[in-house]
Amino acid sequence: MTDLSSALHLSAPELTLAVGGLVLLMVGAFSGEKSTRLVSGLSVLLLLAATALAVIGPLGSAFNGAYVADPLAVYGKALIFLSAAVAVVLGDSWMHRNNIAKFEYPVLIVLASVGMGMMASSGDLISLYIGIEMHSLALYVLAAYRRDDLKASEAGLKYFVLGALSSGLLLYGASLIYGFAGSMRFEDIAAFASANPGPGLIFGLVFLICGLAFKVSAAPFHMWTPDVYEGAPTPVVALFSTAPKVAAMVLIIRVLIEGFGLAHAQWAQVLILISLISFAVGAFGGLMQKDIQRLLAYSSIINIGYALLGVAAGTQVGVQATLMFMTLYVVDQIGFFAILLSLSRNGRPIRKIADLAGLKKDRPLTAVALTILSLSAIGIPPMSGFWGKFYVFGAAADAGYWMAGAAGLVASVVAGFYYLRIIKVIWFDTPEFDVTTDKAPVSAQWIGWAAAAFSFPVLLVALTWLEPLTRAAAAGVGIG
Fold it and tell me: Which InterPro entries match (predicted)?
């Protein structure tokens, strides 16, 4: 097999999505809006095919080390592509119900998935930047999907402007690293950092971390998150809170663990600081929120702080903890947004926490599912949220960062208040006026129930196969 054919074989998931996305774009352009459901269905099949190609495909590196297919990349891509497929399904039913369905929505998700796949397989600074920009450009458009809505336009513009700022920080850091290390490849950078861990290289790494922290909405680089979560369409926010965060976390693991693993003492301090700030902003910032999506924005900030705590450990146990946490976090987020997308009253979506009053009477099963997901987000055992925090706090304690773990526990208690408020409104509050809950889309309703089931009884069985999968993915990560 020639080098080119081997490279094409390794990058088959991204090539499939790129070519398929362009074909679907042409189908939609020539057939018009009547092809929206067809394009959505084919997009889901395309993402599932890319997942299969990533799982069964060969392992190795291509394009002079710029592209890496290893167990970490395979696990990350499977989670990314499946999350994107769910976002397409959720968005299709919701947008048709609100008369804003367009074929561009699933196509943009497919094209964003190409960039997210590249991020998971990045082996150097060039592929890192290409992957980030490929997925970011599609997400900027999705954030402003409702062009006639003032908040959506504001969300898209704010996301774009601050995204450009973060790209500048990232490029400046990458240029400094290249200037000192003399190479773009993570392997070469790791070799240089082990022999010459000078201040210039660390200075560049700090800028790089700041740019990557924006992509996962970690504080203090979170300023775009609440407004974008509030202004963007709900299915778009469901995408933002899952697949892009997984891609960015896998990329952070690659850069820090593989590229700068032997400089762990320097960058771990930065990650711990970012985690602590994220704990404070996410926990206290969400206390006064009344809009559910804005509340989930602050929830995402604190949860990213937990995930970064696992990376800060700098060990394979820490990497496994981060992968486990992100997997369980994604399931909970999908459940939350699926239930939100399945609820509407008197023809309008439910956006305020107070709108959930009376849900126990109108939709008892949905009320139970939302309660389970809320308890999971708090971290009540044996919910999935408990196990995710159990792994990251354990990894942090093993690495000697037990005080940061203790701060995370305190933040979790504070954040528990706004999830308990959701439960209280569902079960104990009565609506201010008589309302009727509209008929729910079947797909969103079942996805929400399935996520809640996974978060409680099914999880005890799921951990038996999820734990070895994350361990195998973490074992493929080279420390330094």
Answer: NADH-Q_OxRdtase_suN/2, ND/Mrp_TM
Among 44, 195, 51, 149, which residue's Cα sits nearest to residue 106?
44
Question: Is 119 in contact with 64 (CB distance < 8 Å)?
Answer: no
Q: Are 311 and 318 in contact (CB under 8 A)?
A: yes
Q: Answer yes or no: are the C-beta atoms of 312 and 462 closer than 8 Å.
A: no
pLDDT band at 288 (very low <50, low <70, confident <90, very high): confident
Nearest C-alpha neighbor of 119 from the set 252, 16, 308, 5: 252
* Residue 348 phi, psi (nearest 5): -125, 145
Alpha-carbon distances, residue 233 vs 101, 115, 149, 170 (angstroms): 11, 21, 10, 28
* Alpha-helical segments (H) within 399-441: 402-428
Token code pair at residue 10: 């390794």
Give the per-residue pLDDT at 445. Answer: 78
Length of the chain: 480
**pLDDT confidence of residue 438:** 54
Cis amide linkage into residue 220, ω under 30° from 0 = yes
Question: Rounded mean pLDDT of the chain?
Answer: 87
pLDDT digits over 184-197, tens only?
A: 898 888 888 777 77
For the chain, give every domain's residue range: 3-475
d(CA 276, CA 55): 35
Neighbouring C-alpha atoms within 13 Å toward the C-beta of 193: 32
H helix runs in 32-149, sequence order: 36-56, 71-97, 104-120, 125-143
Bond preceding residue 441 cis, omega within 30 of 0 = no
